[in-house]
Amino acid sequence: MIRQVFSYEKEFHLLIVDDNSPDGTAQKVKDLQKEFPTRLFILERPEKNGLGTAYKAGFDWCLEATYNYIFEMDADFSHNPDDLIRLYEACAKEGVHLSIGSRYCKGGKIKNWPVMRVLMSYFASIYVRMILWIGIKDTTAGFKCYTREALEKVNYDIIPFKGYAFQICMKYGVRKHKLGIVEVPITFIDRQRGTSKMSSGIFKEAFFGVWKMRKMKL
Description:
- It is a single chain.
- This protein is 41% helix and 16% strand.
- With 218 residues, the chain is an alpha/beta fold.
- It has a single domain, classed as Alpha-Beta Complex (Spore Coat Polysaccharide Biosynthesis Protein SpsA, Chain A).
- The longest helix has 18 residues.
């Protein structure tokens, strides 16, 4: 994934947030930093504390480093890095503050997912729209580009969620600040590397968490 992102004509920088992973991620990144010393960075944390807190740490790091466009994506190739440029251009050229790599907008697709997983994800997004009136078709999407202004305005420090609910809450926060959002159709392919983080706890957090979001001062 690192080499793929760095192969494009447009220059991207990468921050890897590693929560003391036992799979050797941190050392591999450090080895590659010798090859990409000005573009590849790592933020090491002492223990695994959920996806949401990793995103917060990453956002803080990016804002301190004065980046104007901040992306988030999975590194298992379910998100095609070729789409990074499309997400960037959606923000930079269309003037919106959040572009979403969407599976469920017109032109979006899913490949190689079991039917039940597709149905669960699709109807979860419908459920979120019914509760939050958020106006986004792919509410749990994790492939996104934020502008600096969006991350500075959304009070993400108060978000208590650690799983998919964090993704929903961030979109809701951008919407509450009346910042522009656009969905960019992507083809989502079932992970080619790694294993899923989905669990019953994460599902319950998202199911009940949307009700809590309505009262949060994001």
